[in-house]
Amino acid sequence: MGPQRATKPGFGAEPRLKMHTFPLLPQQASVQAGQVDAIFFFMVAVTAFFSLLIAGLIVFFAIRYRRRHDDEIGVAIHGSLVLELMWTIIPFFIAMGMFGWGAKVFFDLYRVPAGAMEIFVVGKQWMWKVQHASGQREINELHVPAGRPVRLIMGSEDVIHSFYIPAFRVKADVIPGRYNTLWFQATTPGRYHLFCAEYCGTKHSGMIGSVVVMEPTEYQAWLSGGPTSDSPAATGEKLFTSLACVTCHTGDAASRGPNLAGVFGHEVELQGGGKVVADEAYLRESIVNPQAKVVAGFPPIMPPFQGMVSEEQLLQLIAYLKSLKGPAARPGAPPQQK
Amino acid sequence: MEAPALTYLNNGHGAASWLLTRDHKRIALLYLVSITVFFVIGGLFATLIRFELLTPEGDLLTSETYNKMFTMHGVVMVFFFLIPSIPAVLGNFLLPIMIGAKDLAFPRINLLSWYIYVLGGAFTLYAALAGGVDTGWTFYTPYSTAAANTHVMTAAVGVFITGFSSILTGLNFIVTVHRMRATGLTWFRLPLFVWAHYATSLIMILGTPVVAITILMVAAERALHLGIFDPALGGDPVLFQHLFWFYSHPAVYIMILPAMGVISEIVQAFSRKNIFGYSFIAFSSIAIAVIGFLVWGHHLFVAGQSTYAGLVFSILSFTVAIPSAIKVFNWTATIYKGSVSLESPMLYAFGFIGLFTIGGLTGLFLAAMGIDIHVHDTYFVVAHFHYIMVGGAIMGYLGGLHYWWPKISGRLYSEAWAKFSALIVFVGFNLTFFPQFVAGYLGMPRRYHAYPPEFQVLNVLSTAGASILAVGYVLPLIYFTYSMVAGRKAPADPWGARGLEWEIPSPPPTENFTVTPVVSEGTHQYGHSQEVGLA
Questions:
Q1: Cα gap A263→B17, rounded to integer Å
Q2: Domains contained in chain A, number
Q3: Partner of B22 at 20 to 30 A CA spacing, among A85, A110, B263, B354?
Q4: pTM of the model
Q5: Which CATH superfamily is domain B22-502 in?
Q6: Residue range(s) defining the domain that contains residue A257
Q7: What is the pLDDT of residues A249-270, one digit of tens each?
């Protein structure tokens, strides 16, 4: 196991009567945080403007046109097409502007820059299990270097969780049966809240931890410190043999299963037409439920591994498959020759 | 001594005359009593939640109990109070009168819908008493089907059953509006309250069956292990979210549209002026009902749905805000050059407009994909939907109850106390829920039993506000009840308002109208027949 710190039992350590002051805004500790805050402030301004406009008009009209005697009646005004068009069209364009801006921020949050380092995360009731590419593991903590894009590949062992780092303004649901990813680039060393944001049962509010941002050199030192297990790819390679994947996926032209070297990130032709890009989700599906999308030219003989491999083992198998360099099926690195 | 006039209240005595009644007005009162009971129960759950959150530690309740409290609070308030509130009480009472009819189209079905509601409520209460349910009111899978070992089935059956009560009410309203309007009451002379209920009814009959089927699927997976949502059985947990929100987002409009109808009536009555832009308000209700069915995916921006689907849901969610904005502008313009009197219903209406404006605009934050990633499932969302449902729907309901109470009960309540309680509700509400916007943007997740200490100040403010809000809700209960006993008798039209309901006695006779009315103009005409342009 990695350099685990004792996980906090809850938030109980503070003296009861002492109240913390609170900031009005969360810390900005990622490159994305400023972008999210910018549109947020814009929308706060728009909200304040329209709320005050409406409230001001109502109060003004209520005073200016207050009933002065009991049988007074108002002036019959039935409407004004010009005004209706004005207060339909102007808000519409403001709303569309917000939509575009919000979508732009979303796409920036969504598109992972090339060269992001990958870290695997598995959520389960009620903890976060993390494994770094070097093999270092931790629970309820995530150590990352500042200044480098990090991509989390996340799966769940039981119910839906959600990985949330407020200081980075990022969040993604962690859903059993599929992978969700999120990426961030931390800017400022420090310790930040990690929350589970999707209600997941009794100890949901205890499924918390810290993200520790370190200077890159400190991070390297941290990675090499403490007892280390094999890298996910190395563990995956052992699983590939022990689960007997290797007996069919030999890498030979005559093998019963497709050659997997270099398959990651490439298009695969499917039985019955159609193509799919072999990403993490497809590889996962092809292990737990191989009949779902069979590669063209191969008989559907692989047994489903649903329930036989844990989420972490799945991630390790995928890490191994990703480590096999293509081009697919060329001699050089067929898996069984290791 | 003259014998008291025969009204719907004294026309028949004893339990049977109420429990077997087919009079829409008596059924409305049956609903009034039962939703009040559920409101009190839901409020007690909220009280426990707020007391637990006074301190960062989870020290008052266990985690299991806390989780059950917010679940039962949501289930009771959404399904057993907010959804039936205005339609089943005020709509039931007023819709036939406003269109000049003696009753709804199907009086027996109307009574049946109340019994169905009570049966569903009984199941849900049984689930609460037997040990509770802890899935959240959203019943997300696979937690609800594979993990939770609380009374999920009983609570789900309760929600399933009560859905049919909504469907029957919606059906009844739609047929009534189509078939039973008085002579001369054309569609564009209908009170806006009726338009709002018509739009609401469309959602009720089109949306509710979907949530019913979804609940059945959850039950099938829990009991029979049919793999629908649980990936371990080959299902897809996100499918549940699509199906659930396909109903439950429009359900928000079931709660708010009738309140908008109430506000349209109040603003006209207390400005002594017809509405500004009648057809824009009427059609914006329909637009909300239609577009509201196409925005459910904004609940799934972080669930890994396709980014292009996300884009479409985002743009549609921004679009559905426009009809609401049109209503707010038109209400404001209605007050212009009115004869404005600030009696308690109008205070509630002003409160509604202000809080709904903030609630609606903060909804745009959640429609903006980039911001939603951060605030999704935080207290920002909790604050937003309480501004809509409590600041909007409940303010509308209370405003309507104050406006039509003299008609319903035949008695006048204490206006001074009513104004005071309106003020208390407004102050208490803002103190309760505004800090939650701040807590949410700071990153406090919802449904947290314990929380980091830096959020404590905001939570203490919120609990203080909730205590004030509770006073504001208890006061009307007291002075309405008191008015039944000792209130002055109400005249037919205590506000000097216009509309068919104000032309008949307070309280109305069982048959509403002794002579079927003939309508020659729209509602809320205060004596000006000339068309006046905007000066």
A1: 76
A2: 3
A3: B263
A4: 0.90
A5: Cytochrome c oxidase-like, subunit I domain (1.20.210.10)
A6: 232-337
A7: 877 777 788 888 888 888 888 8
